[in-house]
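STRUCTURE:
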């Protein structure tokens, strides 16, 4: 990354004119850069574009299964 790229980031995301004049990011400017910049991706974009996890069972069926298992796990069968 070049110095001009860094200056562009500071100019775009830094709210303080005094900090922009000396090419510095305040904590507010850094948080704006981190949240709104296209350069920072927290999530893997490849996983967002394709199916990452396939869930074939309905949530209600899973809930019913685990709920009934918790009720009947203490019963001993003779």
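SEQUENCE:
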């Amino acid at each position: 990354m070049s110095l001009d790229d860094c200056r562009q980031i500071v100019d775009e995301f830094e709210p303080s004119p005094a900090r922009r004049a000396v090419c510095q990011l305040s904590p507010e400017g850094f948080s704006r850069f981190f949240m709104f910049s296209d350069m920072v991706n927290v999530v893997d974009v490849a996983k967002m574009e394709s199916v990452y996890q396939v869930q074939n069972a309905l949530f209600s069926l899973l809930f019913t299964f685990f709920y009934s298992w918790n009720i009947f796990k203490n019963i001993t069968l003779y």
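REMARK: The two ends are 72 Å apart (CA to CA).
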